[in-house]
Structures
1.
Amino acid sequence: MGGTVFRVVTTVAVASVVGSAVLTACGSEEGDGDGLTVWTTENQTERVRAIQAIADRFTEQTGTPVEIVGIDDNQFSQLITSAGAAGDLPDVLGAMSLANVWQMASNDLINTEAAEQIVAELGEETFTPRALELTRDDDTQLAVPSDGWAQLLLYRRDLFEAANLPAPDSLEAIERAARTLHGDGRVGIVVSTVPDDVFTVQTFEAMALANGCQMVDDDDGVVLDSPECVEVFDFYRRLATDYGPAGAQNVDSTRATYFSGQAAMVVWSSFILDELAGLRNDALPNCPECAEDPTFLARNSGVVTTLTGPRNDEPVQFGEITSWVVTRTAPAEEAMEFVRFMMEEGYVDWLDVTPEGKVPVREGTPDNPTEFVDAWHELPAGVDTQRPLAELYTPDVIEALSSSPETFSRWGFPQGEGELVGATLGELPVAQAISAMTAGDVDAAEAAARAAEDIRSIQASLE
């Protein structure tokens, strides 16, 4: 889901994934004739099949076999570490989050020359500048940015209008609405609180950025225990414990609570939009009104993409840029040819796998600068039923989605601390602190201090 990504995932055992890699020694420029192994965090069964079908077209054109292997985003840190230690890296990785990319870069697992060459050949001018900025370490291109998903706050517009509430586009407005709409069998909001899922971090980071809370400052100091951050920890605690459902919440339960009509607001990625519209049979909205009208929630949900906070009046958009990565052990020519194919001939089909969560960051070609973004607008979303998003959501929602990668804000990357962000994937200190706080074990200041200290320890280990 938003890779998360926010999505329903199938756990893949470490041994089976690592064992599926076909290259067991350091790859050469010439390759070894065994084809390519490609990992992707797009691991839902139908998505893996769709990506394999695109890869099979590449095989038909080039003669190079490609095996697509779906992996769980929450297990990525363990999987890539195990594969690297065993000398069994995949050749290419797709749908890699920024943290995943930087974690691999910090462990010297990436062929950065391949990424630089691919971007240059495709044309830097064809990419969204922000996507290139977030996937670069100074002047080194780490990966080939492919697409992005936006973090959304969805809210029941019908309930807001009935209560005369404004759109929840600020932290203050969110809490006011949560307090007002909480009760009578409905919670005001549902947010993730589990300690072992990056989804919790993503949800919290969106709200933290809105209040000017950063993970590190411009001098590389960890500042998660700053007043701005303590305020957001306490804000998040109130949302989860005062206006949310009892118990720990995760990617599945947050969606299920909103889909059942039992929550006035939820934070999720844009991957939710097809499911919200009733286009996926295994994740249908089941609110009381949805039985007769599967599109009820889609029609009655508002979408907020940017937020402000008490200490920051500049709207901030959280989102994820996902990329293609060529590993240092891959047969370089074959791997680069595959990535170029997925960013050219196969690009629209790649976006079509799940257009609501794949906004193109390569907008077109040198000859047709808007070719891919124009095609994206026409792609049908959904699995069991398919309809273009533009038929289901208002033009302002579609425009906000299509332009969102241009302005994504993230912790750590602007300060040059992408390696640190990637390193936190293994321990998820922020999610751990949030879980302890919402369970009542620590207060907001203690949670912020605990997260900050854990990140300082990780930072020291990188020096």
Note: The longest strand covers residues 312-326.
2.
Amino acid sequence: MSRLKVAVVGAGYFAQLHHEAWMRMERVELAGICDMNAEAAEAAAQTHGVTAYTDVADMLADTRPDLVDIVTPPPSHLALIRVCMDNKVAVICQKPFCQTPEQAREAVVLSQNAGRFIAVHENFRFQPWYRKTRQLLDEKVFGQVYQITYRLRPGDGQGPDAYMARQPYFQKMPKLLIHETGVHWIDTFRYLFGNPTAVLADLRRLNPVIAGEDAGIVIFDLPNGVRGVLDGNRLADHAADNTRRTMGEMLIEGADATLRLSGQGELWLRKHGSMQEIQVPCDFVDTVFGGDCVFNLCAHVAEHMLDGGELENEASDYLVVQAAERAAYQSTEKRCWIDVASCL
């Protein structure tokens, strides 16, 4: 394949990052943008010089894309995936992937029957600081790794107007901290250390205006004795000139070294027994969301389709993330450890 034709479903706040990412790729053609909101679809399409649609089937018939990028809320995912698979078109689907694990498994079956992949748009693993961290792990810089701790502190969840400026539907989601946001780090933890096997969680709601939980601590058993800790609080912030850059701070502790991710996207390495931190070079584009992670993921999928590169986060592999998510909610309800395998 010499060129890749992409159509996007979604013209909302975050979908605009996807449109812009595809337009920056030389070997990719953005063929159409679809949204049920005709005004939003038309505005996005005019921006990029493509055709606007309000019906995905019409867009597929007119543009005949190689790939459809679904950037819509979870309740719409399964129906959109079904249309794409009926038309034998590969899919990238935004997270949270489908509305329930049962829908996600159905989507996987549709994909397998159609012989077309679904890649979950789980973009945080494509943030430059986590790719560099993976490189350091491969280089055995840490020795035996004891623990990874991530403190999620975006600071956008306070007061009656929480989330209204960007994603107002957050207020009505019955599950928020883990289902919408925490899955980023479940996937990142497994990217760095492997799939979690058990979960212990304590989730709670601090802001009474929202429906779901916005704070909590989740502990993951990871392979090789590594413990993962996700300490999340959407009301609290962290030291950064842009709290959405990293959305918090990370610490990886090992026998030989400790690595710290700051809110500025900086990685600092300290050898065991030393008082001195050394900055690890980590170049990234700081003008777009998350170190340009949306572009990085889209480019990764494009490389797979154009040149046959390895594909990360196929939907069938991603089901373990949703199982760990479900385990976190069950653990909070039952106040005990939950095996991830029991939630698959």
Note: The chain has two domains: 4-121+295-313, 125-282+321-339.
